[in-house]
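Why should sequence recovery work at all? Because a backbone constrains its sequence more than one might expect. Tight turns favour small or flexible residues, buried strands favour hydrophobic ones, and helices have their own preferences. The token representation captures these environments compactly. In the example below, the structure is given first.
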């Protein structure tokens, strides 16, 4: 029996080590986090138009460097501070130089300790104003205020209160996570309350001195939330704030080994599934929270030798021992804050007798069995049925091992397809965010900085969307200073020198609007074509990708019908029987590349169902449908024969049958061109063409029609 238990823990350990892969770039959570950061970076404080918001993605999205099979991030935490506010430790002089992100005037608050460790008050002390001389660039003068305790006001105005955060619910948008917006005041210095963290003795060298220096150099933040016991107090509930070490935690957790991150993930899953935890507001709470689990692992990383984690690696054993430590903490009502030595994250109001008893009795057999039933099996349900059926009989360790191994192999074999699907979803996130929230130079810079981490693919895609965004705005209104800043930010990084000079020249002289729009559209199409080429290079083994769809669209828009027909016909032959292919989004930025018929169909779709714009599946058109549309339109404009049109009608019929029902715009577009072709054929007399048409209409079996068309395409 002991051998069976040992085998189970080893099998479970192997499962997590093989399936908790390093996250692909991009992945859903990181792309949405990038969008949140960029949108926030382009925002102003609602109660101060001069104040810009500086965002930071925190908590799970920023901390985890692994991607488990089951979702482990339920929301995105965005901390943001005004660039007109700054906090300093008590007794520190005001800074004379500030990072470039800060405004030319900044209110400086002094951090004053409260009776509760880790909780503070903000005292308004100084006003910093930037010096105006050329030699004084970046330097600030300070003026003292009278002592005044201040409220830390939240910056978000919509959503549900969730601890110090304001929750933005995105349930109406599939695949989008909720967002916790947390207002804070930035402190560039390491707080005195945690001064001894930097110098305390560490037996096993974690974190190393370089990591410690990096943590300290990042400073901290102050968020608006009072201690649990003070929230009902008349003035403490309003004025008390909490020190936040989110920046430090990101650096530290990013330095963890995979086994440490996996252990952190599993403990969070266990306590949440067993309802031992609720989403508490980090510390001072009367319920077990994720912050207690994070603190537990941070201490273990510092107090345990590396060999404890790596020798005879057994994740189940590690988690059991960590849960025993947590049980001891609960029994003693003691959970030492990792950064503030005199701060206890538990208090006497914490009733944890039953929880502590449950954790104390935990052993490897129990946790292995629990993980198999509550984690591995749900992972198997994501796999094809033939794999899921293997779990119907796992009575021996060999059968269990074989079933789990099948899940691992499926996970590894689908990684490339998962990455491609995330890329297609990322296209929607980028274009939707740009279209809905618009762009400014700061958000544009933020987008480019975030997407540069993904490699070239989405960087090219965003550049194209940004160019089309400016062109769309110019067509509707005029070239404002804000739009100039945007396209100079993007074009200055993507255009060749001569083009960039031309744009700068237009900015300083009378602009030719039509030439500017033409330049933006042409360059956007070039960027999109490059994006498609990279996509085909990296994902051509899991999807059929035509690289010239935007090039064909641009040729049609400019009346080059022969070129468009050539490209579109080639794309139709490539895509007609493809299982997977990309789509082209129909957002305002892309509408300008479409003709009136597509625009009208899109408008009709939105009139019938306005919610269509919220999902990537109903606000797009597949490459094969778009290629068929362009091919048909060019054939009609170039007066092709009935024979050629009848064959196109066969293509349309196959595409119509292969598109699922939810592809609304595809079905409407295919019906439109089918009707156009039929009307044209009926008004001509070409016997051969009519014969082919009658053949296509009489084909009741899809296989017969497929064989005919596949043979024709091969010829």
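From this structural description, the recovered sequence reads:
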């Amino acid at each position: 029996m002991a051998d069976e238990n040992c085998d189970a823990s080893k099998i479970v350990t192997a499962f997590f080590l093989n399936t908790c892969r390093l996250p692909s770039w991009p992945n859903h959570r990181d792309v949405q986090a990038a969008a949140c950061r960029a949108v926030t970076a382009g925002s102003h404080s609602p109660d101060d138009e001069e104040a810009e918001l500086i965002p930071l993605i925190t908590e799970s999205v920023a901390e985890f460097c692994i991607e488990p099979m089951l979702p482990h991030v339920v929301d995105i935490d965005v901390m943001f501070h005004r660039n007109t506010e700054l906090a300093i430790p008590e007794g520190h002089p005001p800074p004379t130089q500030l990072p470039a992100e800060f405004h030319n005037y900044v209110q400086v608050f002094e951090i004053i300790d409260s009776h509760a460790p880790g909780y503070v008050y903000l005292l308004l002390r100084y006003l910093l104003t930037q010096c105006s001389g050329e030699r004084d660039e970046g330097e600030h003068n300070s003026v003292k205020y009278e002592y005044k305790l201040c409220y830390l006001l939240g910056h978000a105005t919509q959503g549900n209160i969730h601890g110090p955060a304001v929750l933005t619910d995105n349930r109406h948008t599939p695949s989008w996570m909720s967002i916790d917006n947390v207002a804070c005041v930035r402190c560039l210095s390491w707080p005195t309350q945690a001064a001894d963290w930097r110098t305390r003795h560490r037996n096993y060298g974690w974190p190393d001195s370089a990591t410690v220096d990096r943590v300290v150099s990042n400073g901290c933040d102050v968020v608006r939330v009072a201690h649990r016991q003070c929230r009902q107090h008349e003035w403490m509930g309003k004025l008390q704030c909490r020190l936040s070490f989110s920046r430090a935690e990101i650096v530290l957790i990013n330095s963890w080994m995979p086994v440490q991150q996996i252990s952190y993930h599993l403990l969070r899953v266990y306590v949440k599934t067993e309802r031992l935890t609720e989403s508490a507001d980090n510390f001072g709470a009367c319920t077990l929270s994720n912050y207690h689990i994070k603190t537990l692992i941070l201490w273990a990383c510092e107090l345990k030798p590396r060999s404890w984690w790596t020798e005879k690696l057994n994740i189940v054993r590690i988690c059991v021992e960590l849960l025993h430590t947590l049980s001891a903490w609960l029994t003693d009502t003691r959970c030492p804050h990792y950064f503030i030595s005199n701060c206890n994250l538990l208090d006497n109001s914490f009733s944890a007798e039953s929880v502590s008893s449950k954790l104390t009795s935990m052993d490897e057999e129990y946790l292995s069995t629990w993980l198999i039933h509550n984690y591995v099996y749900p992972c198997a349900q994501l796999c094809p049925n033939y794999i899921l059926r293997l779990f119907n009989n796992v009575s021996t360790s060999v059968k269990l091992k074989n079933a789990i191994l099948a899940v691992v192999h499926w996970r590894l074999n689908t990684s490339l397809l998962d990455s491609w699907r995330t890329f297609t979803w990322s296209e929607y996130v980028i274009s939707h965010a740009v279209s809905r929230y618009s762009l400014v130079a700061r958000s544009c810079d933020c987008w480019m900085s975030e997407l540069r981490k993904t490699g070239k693919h989405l960087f090219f895609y965003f550049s194209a969307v940004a160019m089309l965004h400016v062109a769309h705005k110019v067509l509707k209104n005029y070239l404002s200073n804000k739009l100039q800043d945007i396209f100079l930010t993007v074009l200055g990084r993507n255009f060749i020198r001569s083009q960039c000079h031309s744009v700068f020249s237009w900015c300083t002289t009378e602009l030719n609007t039509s030439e500017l729009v033409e330049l933006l559209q042409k360059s956007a199409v070039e960027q999109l074509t490059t994006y498609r080429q990279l996509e085909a290079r990296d994902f051509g083994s899991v999807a059929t990708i035509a690289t010239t769809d935007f090039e064909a669209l641009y040729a049609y828009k400019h009346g080059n019908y022969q070129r468009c027909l050539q490209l579109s016909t080639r794309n139709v032959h490539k895509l007609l029987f493809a299982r997977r292919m990309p789509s082209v989004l129909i957002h305002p930025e892309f509408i300008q590349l479409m003709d009136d018929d597509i625009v009208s169909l899109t408008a009709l779709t939105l009139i019938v169902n306005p919610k269509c714009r919220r999902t990537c599946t109903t606000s797009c058109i597949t490459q094969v449908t778009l290629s068929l549309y362009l091919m048909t339109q060019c054939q009609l404009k170039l007066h092709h024969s009935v024979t050629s049109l009848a064959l196109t009608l066969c293509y349309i019929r196959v595409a119509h049958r292969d598109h699922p029902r939810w592809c609304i715009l595809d079905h409407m577009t295919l019906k439109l061109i089918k009707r156009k072709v039929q009307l044209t054929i009926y008004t001509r007399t070409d016997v051969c063409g009519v014969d082919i048409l009658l053949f296509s209409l009489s084909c009741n079996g899809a296989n017969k029609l497929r064989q005919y068309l596949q043979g024709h395409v091969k010829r």
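A few observations help interpret the result. The two ends are 66 Å apart (CA to CA).
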